Amino acid sequence: MISAYTGKQVRQAEEPLLAAGLGDVLMQRAAHGLANAVVREFKSRGLRTYGAGVAVLTGKGNNGGDGLYAAAFLAARGMRTTAILTAGSAHPQALAAFEQAGGRVLYLSDAASGALVSEAVRADVVIDAVLGTGAKGGLRGSAADLVTAIADARAQARAEGFVVACDLPSGVDADTGAVSTPALAADLTVTFGAAKTGLLVDPGADYAGRVDVVPIGIEEHLDQPGLRRLEDADVARLLPHPARRAHKYSRGVLGVVAGSADYPGAAVLACRGALAAGVGMVRYLGPPEVADLVRRSCPEMVCSTGAVADNRVQAWLVGSGMGPDDHDQLQRARDAVTSGLPVVADAGALPALPDVMAPNVVLTPHAGELAALLKRLGGEEDRAAVEAGTLAAVRRAAALTGATVLLKGATTLVAAPAGDVFSQADGTPWLATAGSGDVLAGIIGALLAQEDSDVGRFREMGVEPEQRWAAVAALGAALHGKAGRAASDACSGGPIAAGGIADAIPETWGKVSMLSNAGVRKRNSHTLPLR
Ligand SMILES: NC(=O)C1=CN([C@@H]2O[C@H](COP(=O)(O)OP(=O)(O)OC[C@H]3O[C@@H](n4cnc5c(N)ncnc54)[C@H](OP(=O)(O)O)[C@@H]3O)[C@@H](O)[C@H]2O)[C@@H](O)CC1
Ligand SMILES: [K+]
């Protein structure tokens, strides 16, 4: 499990060590980790480090100090290092160490700006060490102009060098992931002590690239994480496995209320997602013409009639492919949500549900649907506002509705009403295809139907029982993302259709389970040994 923390939490964890006079030690560890990560990146790209060009954009605070010390390490390895001081001054000891290691120092001024831009475009690696967790707002003034010019010039020249962010890309808010432009999009962010929340949510994640956590010795002082991400080992541990004497009912029955005359295919895709995700039986409830298509497409399906209360299931999936005029289906969706059983509520059901629900109801809006939900509950947010502040929006929706809320996107966020948040980014952009969300709802529905009262495996992972619905939804998002990626990989990274995601689920499930049995190394920053 990756645990992420706000900038404030990390700074608080640093305090006891700073008070003990270990500030410089922490900075040296951070800088050493950053330099090593840069060298590894060169190697993974098949590039030589000796003689390679390094440009470090530095601010006046400790983030700039990290960058300068790291550049001093790189200079000692024979790299040509240039520091561009954006604030007129820099961390004095780090600057002295950098100069002593043979680094070249250039100062930002209007006159020098053009030459500095060329320097950064020519470099094999640009290290962004202007602002870190001490930033108040984004880049300003001449530093902002410089970063804009560098980003433009790199794009125009199709610069081959890569960008590494020191702790976080300057302009990305460490806590919220909100981005104040300009910001330099990094290929890799090397972050210290623990992942920062803002790196694992959109839009911050768009600028962070890959995130590498360098332990610096503050880990034991960190408290509850603000956000978590399931890794392969966690996924494997949470995936249900049938007992030896299981039968189809004991493995869970999912009821599906989905599809309409306009969108019958959504019901089929939701059922295909569910059937592939380990559930004992899937029971469809809906208009006869949709039921016919469901039966013909998936012979494993059982189609029923009547009301929600007449059908015995362990969980419900409601809403995929339903419109505002599907009155009977919407009534079934409402009945499912008030039945007390776990429910995944998607698409067309969202506007028709009560304002207040329970944590075992998982809502799965995209950004536009989440904005509409928040507006209905008295908020001001439009789609753009949700996209600019995904973490705040999903948290707010969970708090207001009392339900678990999953916001679909390149990074999928799941918020429990009590505050836990999970962030999953297992997929590929090819997953943005019609019907993909129906398959996701099917997977989550199937997992909810298999969820029993044994909450021990959640507790072992530090997830409180009442928050487990968010973990189950995150598990569904992880499985969906991995299956989509596997389907695309199977055609050499080509495009996929939603049915292909469902088809890839069983093998993805099996492979992740095998990985866990082989003992996947936990990469949580908490558990990494310190050297
Ligand atoms: N604590 C430790 O021991 C360790 C810390 N570590 C590292 O330190 C980083 C935090 O360092 P930090 O607190 O010095 O702040 P930092 O992010 O460098 O920048 C803020 C500086 O710039 C200024 N400034 C603020 N906003 C601005 C803006 N919008 N535009 C322009 N300027 C702005 C502000 O000055 P002010 O305006 O307040 O006078 C301040 O001087 C952290 O991310 C990690 O990399 C690691 O080495 C581990 C050990
Ligand atoms: K930075």
From TrEMBL:
Keyword presence, NADP: yes
Cofactor annotation comment: Binds 1 potassium ion per subunit.
Family annotation (CDD domains): YXKO-related (cd01171)
Annotated K(+) binding sites: 63, 128, 170
SUPFAM superfamilies reported in the protein's UniProt record: Ribokinase-like, YjeF N-terminal domain-like
Enzyme Commission number(s): 4.2.1.136, 5.1.99.6
UniProt catalytic activity: (6R)-NADHX = (6S)-NADHX; (6S)-NADPHX + ADP = AMP + phosphate + NADPH + H(+); (6R)-NADPHX = (6S)-NADPHX; (6S)-NADHX + ADP = AMP + phosphate + NADH + H(+)
An individual GO BP term: metabolite repair
YjeF C-terminal domain span: 231-512
Keywords: ATP-binding, Isomerase, Kinase, Lyase, Metal-binding, Multifunctional enzyme, NAD, NADP, Nucleotide-binding, Potassium, Transferase
A molecular function GO annotation: metal ion binding
Chain sites annotated for binding AMP: 408-412, 437
Requisite cofactors: K(+); Mg(2+)
Binding site for (6S)-NADPHX: 62-66, 132-138, 167, 266, 321, 366, 438
YjeF N-terminal domain ranges (all copies): 10-224
NCBIfam families to which the protein is assigned, alphabetical: yjeF_cterm, yjeF_nterm
Record function comment: Bifunctional enzyme that catalyzes the epimerization of the S- and R-forms of NAD(P)HX and the dehydration of the S-form of NAD(P)HX at the expense of ADP, which is converted to AMP. This allows the repair of both epimers of NAD(P)HX, a damaged form of NAD(P)H that is a result of enzymatic or heat-dependent hydration. Catalyzes the dehydration of the S-form of NAD(P)HX at the expense of ADP, which is converted to AMP. Together with NAD(P)HX epimerase, which catalyzes the epimerization of the S- and R-forms, the enzyme allows the repair of both epimers of NAD(P)HX, a damaged form of NAD(P)H that is a result of enzymatic or heat-dependent hydration.
Subunit: Homotetramer.
Family, per entry: In the C-terminal section; belongs to the NnrD/CARKD family.
Name of the molecule in the record: Bifunctional NAD(P)H-hydrate repair enzyme
Organism listed in the record: Pseudarthrobacter siccitolerans
